[in-house]
Amino acid sequence: MRLTIDIDEKVLDEVMKYTGETKKGPAVLKAATDFLRRGRINEFTRRVMAGEFDFPMTNEELESAPLEDHSADGADR
User: Fold this and answer.
1) Digit-coded pLDDT (tens) for 4-54
2) How many Cα atoms are found within 13 Å in the side-chain-facing hemisphere of 6?
3) DSSP string of 7-21, one letter each residue
4) Which of 6, 21, 22, 52 could form a disulfide with 26 if both were Cys (CB 3.0 to 4.6 A apart)?
5) What predicted TM-score, i.e. pTM, was given to this entire model?
6) Are 33 and 21 in contact, with CB atoms under 8 Å apart?
């Protein structure tokens, strides 16, 4: 989807710096995607802390469980 937005040049430069992207579009997409990922993590954490989830495993079982790589390239770890 194409979109026209106004972004302060200094903000866009900083977004490009932190995302490592050299083009504006990919930099904004990466920043927006990361923003959503962090929001989902925050919402999940809030719900866990509020006791809205009942995990079938104990903390010890979770900590000893092998990690599975669900990212496309494993770079998220």
Assistant:
1) 999 999 999 999 999 999 999 999 999 999 999 999 999 999 998 898 877
2) 0
3) --HHHHHHHHHHHT-
4) 21
5) 0.65
6) no
